Acetolactate synthase-1/2/3 large subunit (Pigmentiphaga kullae), 1042 residues
Amino acid sequence: MNASPRQTGAEWLLRSAAASGIEVCFANPGTTELPFVGAMDAVPQVRPVLCAFEGVCSGAADGYYRMRGTPAMTLTHLGPGFANAIANLHNARRAGSSVYNVIGEHMSWHVEADPPLASDIESLARPVSAGVYRADSPASLVMSARQSLANAMAPKGGIHTLILPMDLQATTMDEPVFAARVADAPAVLEAGLVEQVAAHVAAGRKTLLLLGGDALHEPALMEALRFRDLANVEVVGETFPARSEHGGGLPAIRRFNPAAEQAHAYLLGFELVALVGARRPVAFFGVEGYPSYLGDPARMVELCQEGRGGAATLAELADVLKLARRGLEPVERVTDQDLGESLTPESAARVVAAWLPDQAIISAEGKTLAFPFNAIAARTSRHASIVLTGGAIGQGIPAAFGAAIAAPERKVVGLQSDGSALYTVQALWSMARENVDATILIASNRRYNILIDEMRRNGYELSSPPVRDLLQLSRPELDWLGMAAGFGVQAERATTVSELRRSFRRAMAERGPRLIEVMLP
Amino acid sequence: MNASPRQTGAEWLLRSAAASGIEVCFANPGTTELPFVGAMDAVPQVRPVLCAFEGVCSGAADGYYRMRGTPAMTLTHLGPGFANAIANLHNARRAGSSVYNVIGEHMSWHVEADPPLASDIESLARPVSAGVYRADSPASLVMSARQSLANAMAPKGGIHTLILPMDLQATTMDEPVFAARVADAPAVLEAGLVEQVAAHVAAGRKTLLLLGGDALHEPALMEALRFRDLANVEVVGETFPARSEHGGGLPAIRRFNPAAEQAHAYLLGFELVALVGARRPVAFFGVEGYPSYLGDPARMVELCQEGRGGAATLAELADVLKLARRGLEPVERVTDQDLGESLTPESAARVVAAWLPDQAIISAEGKTLAFPFNAIAARTSRHASIVLTGGAIGQGIPAAFGAAIAAPERKVVGLQSDGSALYTVQALWSMARENVDATILIASNRRYNILIDEMRRNGYELSSPPVRDLLQLSRPELDWLGMAAGFGVQAERATTVSELRRSFRRAMAERGPRLIEVMLP
């Protein structure tokens, strides 16, 4: 934290970021970030991690935050470079992840001449940022760096984006290095709210506890267990949690189905819906004849209030109701016995559940493997799960990579559909480069299954050539062994249950990056 | 052009787009575009081309426009999907390409509930669009479709982006199909301007003709030839033209070097700088001590005026000066004799120039192969060249693909650096899928050479581990044979001049998609 009197603006910012708690920078620099790259030499406290595409940087920063709880920095190159990071920043925003983006920009005095790489970076950054800042003088660098870092490091601070012109990266800074001071958000308690909900429950009214955010982490789940014997209380988890914990005796929490046709009627079946860290339910896609906001707003209450964790909220409710504490219960673990040899999503998920090591991290994208795995996730070893929160595909492999950087002592397993894997396939290269302990299973079914299902649901004819063609990933078939070799990741192909078992067990027993192509019908 | 009384909004839009001259849609649809996908079945006049990443859609639309001169449609999925298209739309904007983007959106009534995939699409689209339009009722669909199509189809109309909610894609339209009526822009002639410039030239003042836009196409180049014997006139082309034509007897036009240190002094060496379709020169990156706008504005004149082509302008100037017309002159074609076996950027460029078929299209990205090829481009067969206009890397392979769709009778050759190829490597899959006649040469040097050069130029120490690491693509090395196999493209690796000659000649003799990894030191 020594402020060198001759440090550059980039060195000052990096030292201040390090002092504030930032440890990693997922970087894809270009010419306008060269002083920043040079500064990384002088500030080893922030580890630079090179990604060969910006969507890998942002997806990795999201996965990193979800597992570690502190933001990573990203470094991208002007508007077009940052634009490539937007899709996964969208997912990060929906996950409530905090990320600290630094975008290199032309010399501050050069922007107005509109050189070829110039564009309206603010307009691009705003839709995915809680705050956008621009330095255009040493004084504004000091102010914008202090504001943006303090906001990014605050609890639930969200995504903050600093536009940093090249001349200010290189300028000489006399300003001392700072550590962002973050005040804990005070808990806002509405008097009597928990008691009111408890009175409804005690009166036998049909009640839904909809858990989200940290109410899906272990401490809250142990409190949720206390409600298990109440016949009038149902406990469900939000559909796409930023991180949820499963297995090893934790209660199996069903996920809320956000399809309007089912969800609206389901919610109307309760007299009270208590939101514990979950957002008010909204239909994932709009469906004619159903409202956007599902259920009856008059019967919903936000039980988990600002600055208060899900565990404390559930504990208070259970205490008022005088429900006993419970311990983890032994579970009968899923095995992969008697599966036969036919590789299906269900049999593949069984193999994974049977051999998943303790404390693994699952990064799931796409429904093919994730849905059957979710169905048995409670009956495997303890693991954390991170899923696609914002619907922007191309999140799974970058998030797996970022999670592996965040938690190098844990095994990461990607349950990945092939269509979405293509969007940020460059993440394989960073996996190999950083030698992370992550195994990606690619569910190779060579089609956009989710679209095919939706087309069928909407009554479209799937046999017509143009439509069929737009939903197929065959012609040509993707070869994931080739792809993995292209990016330097060791890979195997499994066409039977035995082959998958052999490959997966070996991958779990050894360390390092791997890919397994799971050939599905 | 029959308006079916029961057509959907998407069918009506597609039919109107087809009637207005749109022939191809580079598509990456998701759930909110399903009615649009369904409509493609009913409207075979617009050919759907599936891309496995949105940056491929936009890069292909750019390459398509540059060769065909009419816009393609793109179809992307909400804000995050469109975001992936932005980097290559930035390049398209800088190329002056016209593109017609359709972005699927949630049901119009569902947007305000802010479902997971919702975002501020307008904010994302504006930086790369000349116009952004949103339909939120059948009436506004009619108005926004008419406006956006008319603007996109206008000469130099640029990029126009229509946000189209799912319910309006599916709505029943009674509106008749329309064809956008495009008025030719009237030529704006400032009286006497050409005569004034001619008087300067006739008086022996040192004059630079800086050609850009269509002044780098054959008709204008033949007019430019007429100035060749004037000792006081220099003819130079803009640095990154959207499309330039070369070889087969066309004059060799040197490209303007936009590095401020050289360019500013160079421009000051002229008494008059006449811009013929070129933009006023701006430094590519700002350099301390040099202005953003290079040269002396008082000595510059925009000779090529609104609505007037470069050929007409140069012809008028040459006519006033009574310069004789000239024909193509025979050129001594580059050979690859006496090259030895050592594969370098220069020897590889010589092999390409020696065996390039007539009327090929070169798509060049990255300096490694493009710079030595440019130096000898005049001494090979007639070809068109499309290059990176906006500095957003990941343009070369998608643009090659789009050019091949636009001009299926011409051979496309990509001169591609490895670092930038990674950004949109998914374009290989579309190349294979559409079986386009394109051969991509990957200059495999396993580092970001452009950054290494810039770091050196700025006096950074390249031996320190973090800095060196951020500029290397080794660890692991990319394997382009694996990558090509992954995406279904036939590939070969060349490690000697003989191997490259053999592979390249075979690729030129046969049709279809290929990749050649050119192993460079």
Summary: Chain B has three domains: 7-173, 193-320, 345-519. Residues 7-173 of chain B form a domain with the Rossmann fold fold (CATH 3.40.50.970). The longest strand of chain B covers residues 99-105.
